[in-house]
Structures are given as C-alpha cells and as structure tokens.
Amino acid sequence: MSDPNADPEARNRLLPADGVGDDAPDEPGAGDSVQALHEAVMREQAEPRDGFEPVPFWVAVVCGGLLAWGGYYIGSYTADFRADVYDRADLKDVAPPATAGPEPNPKTRDELKSVGEQKYIALCVGCHGTDGKGLKEQPGKYPPLAASEWVVGDKASPARLSRILLYGVKGPILVQGTTYNDLMPARGAELRDYQIAGLITYIRNSFGNEGDKDNAKPAVTADEVKAARAKEGARKANGTAPYTADELLKVTEPDLKK
Amino acid sequence: MPAPLTSEMLEANRARSAAERAAIDASCRGPVLAFAVSAVFWLLMGSVLALIASIKLHSPYFLTGSAELTFGRVRMAHLQAVGIGWASLATVAAALWQMCRLSRAELIYPKILYLACALWNVGTLLAVFGIIFGDGQSVEWLDAPRYAPPFFIAALGIVVAWVVAVFRRRREPHVYVTQWYILGAVFWFPWMYLVTVFMIFWAPATGVVQPIVNWWFGHNTLGLWFTPVAVGTAYYLIPKIIGRPIHSYYLSIIGFWALALFYSWAGMHHLIGGPIPGWLASASTVGSMMMLIPVLAVAINHHMTMRGHFHRLRYSPALRFTVFGAIAYTAVSVQGSFEALKDFSEVAHFTHYTVAHAHLGAYGFVTMIYFGLFYYMIPRLTGREWASPLLIRVHFWCAAVGITVYFVALSIGGWWQGRMMNNPDVPFGKIVTYLLPYLFTRSVAGVLLTVGHLAFAVSFIMNLAGWGKRRSGGPTFFVEPGG
Amino acid sequence: MDRGMVIFLGALLTFSSSWLGLVLFPFWQLGGEKPYQKDETDDPYPVPLQGLALAGQKVYQNNGCMYCHTQQVRSERFGNWWDANGEQRTGADIRRSYGQRRTVSRDYIYDNPTMLGTMRTGPDLANIGVRNPSAPWHHTHLLNPRSANAWSIMPSFAFFYTREKVVGSRSDKALSLGREWTVNPGYRWKPSAKEWDALLAAQGPALAAQVGLDPASAEGKKQLLDYWLTTPEEDYQVVPNADGDALVAYLLALRKAEVPLPEAKE
C-alpha cells in the first residue's frame, strides 16, 4: 500500500461521504454519518497485500506430471481431430472391420429366455405388464399374455408369434373372451431375429405359461424367425403392414421344415 | 531513506486510510446495495422455485394443476432466478465494491449503475416469468425467452464499463490478485454470452454445434464468471479479516493464468459419450484435469494464509462462510476434474450425481463465499452492524448442514442410479423407485437451505432499515470473544 | 502484473484459444453436414420436421421436457455391467433399445434447438417413435403417467387435454381411460365415502348386474368400486388440445438412431 505521505494530492482528492452531517451518533438513522461509517472501517485491517513465499517444489512436480499426462492423452485420444470419429475407444484403435461379426444365434431355452427377458422389460412391460396380464391401471386395454390362446393355447404357433412380433397386430382381436381393438407396434425393423426368437421363447415360458416339467415349451430359434421373414418377402416390418386376427388365423404352416 | 514512522504517524496513516475507505464505500454504496438487495430477492425467489421443483420429483401430484408450475418450467425458472438473479447480481456487487476498494478509487456517476441494476432485474423478471408462462427455450443456462437477453446485454455493458473505469482511475499502483480476477470475469463473460446468444438464437448453428457452444458457455459461466469473482473475494476477505498477507504472489499468478488457459477448454465434458467428435471430449477431459493446477495453487495459498488463524473461524461470520466456500471450491473442483475422466463420466452422466456436484459448486462454493462477503460488506455500506447473532448462526448452520446433506444424498443416489442405468437388466421403474428416498432427503435439505435464506433476508432487512437493537462499537460475531 | 494491458492481453489470448478451438473449429467442421442418402432410391436421412411435429417440438421446448429426458444414444462401448453369468458387457443404451446404434452429429442437423438433454430422470427419447409408435398410449401417458407406469414420477400434463361433455357421439380422439383418470384430469380420482354410498344407492343394482357381483357384501362392494373406477365416463370425454396433438406427433417423429450411418460404426 502506497504511503499517503508520498502523495499529498491524495488527501485532497478524498470526497466527502454522502449525507455527511453532524447528527448526534446515537440517534437511529444517523448511521449515515462519516463517524458511524468510520467505526467499521476504522477497525479494519489494511487492504490485503501479497506475500512472496516461493512455490513449493512438489507443486512444480505435480504440474509437470499433469502436463505430461495431458500431452499423452491428447496425442492418443484425439484421432487427428477428425470429425467422423466419435468414441474414445475408437480413437486409439485401427479402423474397425468393414462388416460386423455374425449375428448371435443362441439355441438353448435359457439363453433365449434371457435375451427375451431383457427385451420384454425394455419394450413390452409398458403395455403387457410385468406379470404378462396387461396393465392393472387400464384393464381391458392391452391383452394378457398369460394363458393366452395366441401364446400357448390353440391359436399359438411360432409362425404366428413371429409374424405378430415382426409386423405388429391391428385389432380387433379376441383374446380370452375379450376383444381388444388397438394397434400393436411392429418390432421387425428394430429387433434382430435372435431377439424376436428370444421374446417368443420368453413369453411362452413365463407368466405361468411354461406348463409342467414334461410339457415345457420348446425354444424358438432365430432360424424360424428368419424363415418367417423370408416367406413374407416384401412385407415391411416398420409398422405399415400389421397383421389382422383373420390373417393370423390363415397362417397354418410352420416356416421351417423340421 | 525516509525517517522511520513514529506511532503517531502510523495512527495518522491508519486514520487517513480509514477515511479514504469510508469515502470509497460511500461513493459506491448506493449501487452496490441496490445490486445486493436485488440479489437477495432473487435468492428467495430461486429458493421457492427450487423447493417446488424438488418436491415434485418425489411427489408428482404436488401442485399438478397448472401448466405454469409444471416441473420443466419450474426447473428452468429456478436456474434463471439463482443463476442470473442471485449469483450474477451478487457477482456484480462483489466486483464493484472490491474493485473500488482495491483500486482505491471512488465510483463516479453512480446513478447510471442504478439503471443497470433496474435493467438486470427487469431482464431476470422477464426470464423467470416468461419461462413460467411458456416461453422457455430449453437451452441450458439460457432458457430465458428471446426478449430477455437485450436487457442483460445492456446492463452488463454498463457494469463492465464502470468496473473498467474504476480500475483505470486507480490510485493504488499495485494491482492485487482480486482485481485480476474481476477484470478477467468482466471481460470473458460478455464475450461468451454474446457469442453463444448469437450462435444459438440469432443465427442458429446446425445441429450438434448448438450444444457444443451451449456447454462452452455454460461451463465457462461457472469458471470464468462466478469462480473468478468468488475466488477473488476469498483472496480479499481471508487476508483482510486476518490481517496477514496472502501466502504467495507466485501461486496467485499460477492460479490465475492456469484458470484462464485451462478452464475454457473443459466445457465439453458435459457431452462425453454424446454425438460429438471424440477429439472434443478428449480435449475437455485434458482441460478438466489440468484444472487441478490452478485449484491446487489457490488451495495452498488460502490454506497457508489461514494457518495458525483457524481459531478465528469461531467468531467471524464473514470468515467462516468464506473459508467454507473456499474449501468447497477445492473439493468441487477436484471432484469435477475426475468426473471428466471417461470411466467416471460413464456412470455419473445423466444422473443426480451431477446435480449434487453442480450444487456443491454453485451453492457450497460460490453462494457461501458471497454470503461471507455480504456479512462483511453490508455493515460497511450501511454503517450498522448486524442486529442478531442468532439469525447469523441459524443462517450458517442451515446453509452448511443443508448443502452437506444435499450433496451426500444426491451423490450416493446418483451414483447408484448411474450404475443401474448401465445395467439393462434393471428395469427403469426400479431406478426411479430407488431414487425416491434420496430425492426426499434433498427436499429436506432444501427446506433447511431456505430457512437459512429467510434468516439472512431478515437480518439484511433489519440492517437496511435500522431495526433491532442498534449495534455499534464492534462487529457481530457468532460468539463473543472470551465467552 | 501491475499493468492493465498485460492482464487484458493475457485474458484475450487464453480465452481466444478455446473460442477458436471449441467454438469456431467445430463450427467449421460440423456446420456443413448434409443428410445421408444410401442410394438414389432411399429417402434422405434425416429430414426436417414439418407441420404438427414441428409445432410439437416447440411444445417440448417450452415445457422443459429436455430436463428429464435425453435424446442421445451412447455407443456400444459405453456403459459396463456384469451380467447374470458374471461376464462384463458394454453398450447399455443400445441394450435398453434406446436406439439401434449410437447417435452422431448428423442425426441432429435439422434439430433447432438441439435438445440433447443432460438428465435421465426418465428414459432416453431419441428413438421413442420407433420404440413406442402408439399415439393413444402417448396421450394416456401424458395425461397422467401413472396410468401407464405406477412407479412414474413424471408430471401429469393434463393441460394438454380438455375434459368436455360428450355432445352427440364420442370423439375419435377421446382417450380411452377409466374414470379414475379422467374425472380430475392429471390426478387419480376416487369418490369419497359419501359419494360412493350415494352412487351405490342410485346405480348399485344396475352396476352389479352388469358385472355379476353382490353389492351387499364388503368384497363385492370393493370389486364394484374397482370396476366402476376403471370404466370410462359415459357423458364426459377427455380429448387432446392442439398442444397435446402436436407434442405426440413430435414424439412419434423421434426416430433418430434407426437408419444406419457410415460414421456410426457401432
């Protein structure tokens, strides 16, 4: 802090405070006086000033280490600042193979069930419920899967279930004595064959549908779903060509000759 | 060599300095108080909006009748109220007062700053109520409807011009570290604000460039507008209250320039894993980790200055709030640096963990330091001490306990939320149900914080109006020394 | 550092490095992206929103939906978990069917504002139009999310709907929900004990006959109440207003991570 003695001008440049008066300091509202202002500022310490301790050596080491790490990271993980490389892992690798690996084709019931369960939770519980009985909050809105004739009853077949999942269903459709008149979305565009097969296997083996030990429902594999797609040919799986109940009933042949 | 100063001369120097400071305070008192009062008003508004939003998250039928109070709008309005309202107005008050004090220059033409304060308040009002009534923009930090920014730009222009004018009129030849930070903040914030408003609203950039610019702005608001002025305030108050010099000028230099260089590169860590080119995310991870350098420098400076004087925390409200904030600054910055690493971000992204981190910074660090500043500065501007140590104690403990509970609850809940989200076998509903007790705890913490704010507001009003047992003859401490 | 010019120049140079690097350079790199067209016969992707969906984007924007829902799908390599067999897997977003692939910058070139979102209080919506293309489902869900998911904390957006008296025949757009969701839109309604008793007195036997329940027994009464609550109101209907229609149109138009893009390698 500079010494006011060194600059006599400084004293002359002091402005008087607003509301300077000679009011007695004890009256309320007289806090505006310079005297009262001075109380707080009088006891203040001087304005802060700098000390000049040196920077500890270990701080320099830490800074140097961080800078080195930063340089390494930039070198390794920026892929030459390309705009078409998105992932950190990509940035270090050589270009990935041109074609993706073969699609999984699980064959056992348990494997298929576990794939199906994940998809069921992600896509189906919202309408068919966690127990496969539809939504408790909106009874009569979405058909149950538990004990449904289309899933494990006299109208069920892998061929029909594949088509329901691939292309969707447009009501009205009769399920366990109730008519449902909504639109079930198609999943054929967003799900792969093994995922649809997994779903079919899962719903036929859950919610009480699995039956007794000797009569448990066999696994439906990706091959059957693929065969269904092949048979359908040009039919689009993006929701524009849903099956109706009548059309489903006309599907009587299995897609895959055993 | 001049003759050594006698004790009478020292006394005379002290008296002259005090008179000078009193005159400086008197010159800037009106505008600074105007900004401070506005800030506290928006703090209260922001607290109410925060509580509404928080309760709605665990009790969705709370106040569900109207479009105006739907969660999305209340959340946007809350951020505007506390971000451009409380925190920015307090930043302006802090910048003005400390620049005047440290430059040892009076504020001239203070009335124009009243205009700036009015403009800023109008802008914030338009922002908050515009959002409530349906004009929110869904751009993080910039949700204010299109008719609000002109007010901020005008007000900001005036404030920046005045701060720089004070600096240029300085009598004090040495420029202290707080002044560097303030100059940086008032230079950077208008730049980033104008660029962002231009590239997102006036001439919208294509696609993903918008969030890139948005987070460049959003993150820089925290680190190059609030942080410099709040850290600068800590650099002012800690040595000032204790009466010792700041530990190391060289560490101050490192702290300032490393902040300036690295902070602005860290913004893309908000988009890690997102649809942006990988090099942006990597550059920001590096920028974020480099921030350990200035944070370390500042932490050492503050800590070594305080060493041997921690007992003063028992008495001084201003010091206690400020040191709490300074410690929170170190904590939140170190947390943030590591949160930017890809493996950490993978879990914490999109969760309440980030919300906890954000509030540790915005509240635990910035807001607490501004509380400390207000407790120090207001008596000097009004000439009246704080009337009630009880209210100050209530304020401190509600704030400190509130923010700690907030941070711990949401950090734990958010971390597990992230882990569960990364496991697709966990149905989404389970995650929501899991979080409910943590969200409820956050509401409880929010009530505590609001009670603290009310205590503070009452203290503030009493001080402004001169109510309560008129206190003079000594500062209001938490407990009386020797008692 | 006692000279203002030093501080000014330093602040200018340091900040402009990020301005150039994080703002101008990405703007130059990404600003000119064009839609992708695999070959002549395919539709270009993406296409700008139009009409009702565009209006719905504004509704989404003004109501802060972005603050609970993201619209970005992370890559196959993001999100580790250990499955039931103890193997480490990645790609949680894609496994949750949030998209067929990660989202990239080209997915957003026509999004203005680009609402990527930062919180997943609710699920990601980038591909919601693919995952759930049922407009009626979205309407009932928006009216009161708990009608679809009991655990939901999403706000009820009843202000996108109007409850009106049925004049003539029921509207095609009427939401098909039980009266517990429509009598007080946005809330879940239950008659008070007195109201229920009065109702039973007036309509009890008729209702009971419909369902084959015994209105005298306590169990029968309870089941009657459940039945009654889940049937739609006869003389009132809940229909979406312009905002509701627009928002659902927008949601159904959200199909971001569906079309394969060459730069989205996984």
Could you characterize what this model shows?
- The complex is a heterotrimer of chains A (258), B (483) and C (266).
- With 258 residues, chain A is mainly α.
- Chain A has 9 helices and 5 strands; from the N terminus they run ααααααββββααβα.
- In chain A, the strands form 2 sheets. Chain A has a 3-stranded mixed sheet. In chain A, strands 2-3 form a two-stranded antiparallel sheet.
- In chain A, helix 5 crosses helix 7.
- Chain B is an all-alpha fold and 483 residues long.
- Chain B has 14 helices and no strands.
- The termini of chain B are far apart.
- With 266 residues, chain C is mainly alpha-helical.
- Chain C has helices spanning 4-30, 51-62, 92-95, 128-131, 135-143, 179-182, 193-211, 218-229, 242-252; strands at residues 81-82, 88-89, 161-165, 236-240.
- Chain C has a domain at 51-177 and 241-252: Cytochrome c-like domain (Cytochrome Bc1 Complex, Chain D, domain 2, Orthogonal Bundle).
- Chains in contact: A-B, A-C, B-C.
- The interface between B and C is large, with 87 and 85 residues.
CATH overall fold name of the domain at 216-433 in chain B:
Cytochrome C Oxidase, Chain A
Mean pLDDT figure of chain C: 90
Strand order of the largest sheet of chain C: 1-2
Specify Rg of chain C, calculated over alpha carbons. Answer: 26 Å
Poorly predicted spans of chain B: none
Number of H- or I-type helical stretches of chain B: 14
Number of strand elements of chain C: 4
Poorly predicted sequence stretches spanning 5 or more consecutive residues of chain C: none
The amount of beta strand of chain B, in percent, is: under 5%
Morphology call of chain B = globular
First-residue to last-residue Cα separation of chain B: 46 Å
- Largest sheet geometry of chain B: none
Identify the CATH homologous superfamily of the domain at 51-177 and 241-252 in chain C.
Answer: Cytochrome c-like domain
